[in-house]
Design a protein that fits this description.
- A five-stranded mixed β-sheet has the order 2-1-3-4-5, with helices on both faces.
- The protein is α+β, with helices and mostly antiparallel strands.
- A hairpin with a 4-residue loop joins β4 and β5.
- The chain is elongated, with a radius of gyration of 24 Å.
- 49% of the residues lie in helices and 11% in strands.
- α4 packs across α5 and α7 packs antiparallel against α8.
- The protein starts with a helix and ends with a helix.
């Protein structure tokens, strides 16, 4: 497509979308076919949200000094083969307890506390965060015995694990499996406290060309417009696309707005000749495919 033709097409698309915007509000109440089903979904959503919210603990509610451990043994008292590094070398990393792996990352304790004691308490402290992304270097620096080097090692290990999981998930991607898509972005989005809207672009062989964040909202809303979605898709000459966003509440139950924007995206996709294969909502360790849900 020539540049002039492309610019003209975007102008025409923009006019179409602006015209459609005026009709969006009139269609808000036509999303769910049955009021009964709507109430059931809302009740389920509220129940799931309540269960999730109870588990979302903030740093403000957790004090490292209040965490107790029953571990009184010093690393100096252990046999050589029972020390974390030597144990890993001889038996493998899978044979170590979680806190022993943390001890290896820390390397040493402080003058007041043994490395095993710090590691066990630190691991309990980390587990208090359902959203691991809340944990920062500065949070760890507040703990006596942990300096910049040790704090950086912990955060780097968490980030490295996240990146490895993403790479493995990309290798396992198949276009007909919503779970394989969710697995990629679960690592990216499940801990986010804001709503992020992503688009995945595919070629004619259903290989991933690119993906990018199209919009970002606050705790209660996300701003996404078909214009941005399809401008991105046209830029890379995509054959098809998959949309995806997260619910910061942790509950992936689709809202009316989710259903409406999905139907609108599908209409525009049909107009421009790019297939919308699915729209997936990411919660905390769970997801929903709006194609399977019947919105596409």
């Amino acid at each position: 497509m020539l540049n002039n033709d492309y610019d003209e097409f975007l102008k025409e698309l923009d006019i179409f979308l602006n015209r459609e915007d005026k009709n969006v509000k009139n269609e808000q109440n036509k999303v769910f076919e049955s009021k009964v089903n709507e109430n059931l979904k809302e009740n389920l959503s509220k129940k799931n949200k309540d269960n999730v919210d109870k588990d979302l603990l903030s740093i403000k509610n957790v004090e490292y000094k209040d965490i107790k451990t029953d571990l009184n043994l010093s690393i100096k008292d252990l046999n050589v083969d029972d020390k974390p590094r030597e144990k890993l070398y001889k038996f493998g990393a899978d044979k170590l307890f979680d806190y022993e792996l943390v001890a290896i990352l820390l390397g040493s304790g402080s003058k007041d506390e043994d490395v095993l004691s710090i590691s066990k308490k630190l691991w309990k402290y980390i587990l208090k965060f359902q959203r691991i992304s809340e944990l920062t270097v500065n949070d760890l620096l507040k703990i006596k015995g942990i300096g910049l080097s040790k704090a950086s090692s912990i955060i780097a290990a968490l980030e490295l694990s996240k990146r490895i999981n993403i790479k493995e998930s990309v290798k396992n991607f198949t276009v007909d499996s919503p779970k394989s898509v969710a697995d990629i972005f679960m690592n990216i989005l499940r801990d986010e406290l804001k709503e992020h809207f992503y688009v995945i672009l595919l070629d004619t062989k259903n290989n991933i060309i690119s993906w990018d964040e199209i919009s970002r909202g606050d705790l209660n809303s996300s701003i996404v417009h078909p214009r941005e979605v399809f401008k991105y898709a046209l830029k890379y000459s995509a054959n098809s696309l998959i949309c995806l966003h997260n619910h910061p509440s942790g509950d992936p139950t689709p809202s009316k707005e989710d259903i409406n924007i999905t139907k609108r995206l599908y209409e525009v996709a049909d107009l421009v000749g790019i297939k919308l294969l699915d729209h997936i909502i990411i919660g905390y360790n769970k997801h929903i495919s709006l194609k399977a849900y019947g919105a596409i």
